[in-house]
Design brief:
Keywords: Glycosidase, Hydrolase, Secreted, Signal. This protein has 274 residues and is mainly alpha-helical. Helix content is 45%, strand content 7%.
């Protein structure tokens, strides 16, 4: 099993570490119906489940994404603790917003007492006020279905829904929407050079998406080229196998709807969804 890569963070937005992810796209208090778009692509429940498994293969070397609610560790990437199903980080604001949401929904929960410390360490790799019991209490909270739902909802609000919506507006089918989602998970939302917006802008300089009259395969190749370039800007992301031996393979095979069966490799490890 390969060492886990570092996750996407606000540092990659071309901003400072203190900058939180761009979460204004969908209100955290919006109902699922308010945030939803017509389920005709990656947001189809079956396709979304596939997306969660593929991302988990790259982020956690497993297809069992639901086992990651309890995951938490400091991977020594300068972002403090990384945790949960999408890699919420104590140093980049999204973990703070997750714990705030949990406190709103379930006052008095086991993590609420850490909110002052999470506010203090935001923008740094510090554990001040979190150690020695934060990891233990996170794992306790992860057994609570209310906290699991908070993780699901924040994943959708900040990452999944915006990337699928942007993909649909660009005229992309399911694979293209997934390429957007995987990019925003690693690189974060925003318009910095190595953020999702920066990657998309770099692709647009080379090709047009279908919504602008371009060829979908040509555009996605340009997007993946831009994605690989962005990954290589940081040593921790320099292994590009999640693109080269997964997304690029499906694109080359013409599987624009991300239909099963799917076979791919990440960091040399093989995966299969039947």
């Amino acid at each position: 099993m390969q060492t886990r890569p570092t996750r996407r963070t606000a540092l990659l937005l071309g901003l400072t570490l203190a900058a939180a992810p761009a979460t204004a796209l969908v209100s955290r208090y919006a109902s699922p119906a308010d945030a939803a778009v017509q389920a005709t692509g990656l947001d189809d429940p079956a396709k979304k489940e596939i997306a969660m498994q593929i991302v988990c293969s790259a982020e956690n070397s497993s297809l069992d994404w639901k086992a990651q609610y309890k995951y938490i560790e400091d991977i020594d990437d300068g972002r403090g603790y990384t945790a949960g199903i999408i890699g919420f980080c104590s140093g980049t604001g999204d973990m703070l917003e997750l714990v705030e949401l949990y406190a709103d929904r379930k006052p008095g929960n086991v993590l609420q007492k850490y909110l002052p410390a999470l506010r203090d360490v935001d923008g740094s790799d510090s554990h001040d006020g979190l150690d020695p019991n934060y990891t233990r209490d996170w794992k306790t909270a992860a057994k609570d279905t209310a906290f699991q739902q908070c993780q699901n909802d924040e994943r959708d609000r900040v990452y999944f829904n915006p990337s699928v919506s942007r993909g649909k507006s660009d005229g992309l089918r399911t694979l293209g929407q997934f390429c957007y989602y995987d990019a925003i998970v690693m690189h974060g939302p925003g318009n910095g050079g190595t953020s999702f917006g920066g990657i998309r802008n770099r692709a647009l300089q080379k090709a047009k998406p279908p919504a602008q009259g371009g060829n979908e395969t040509t555009y996605l190749n340009a997007f993946l080229d831009a994605r690989v370039w962005a990954m290589k800007q940081e040593e921790a992301h320099s292994d590009t196998s999640r693109v080269d031996t997964a997304q690029r393979v499906w694109l080359r095979n013409g599987n624009l709807d991300l239909n099963t069966p799917l076979d791919w490799k990440v960091y040399g490890d093989p995966y299969h969804i039947g």
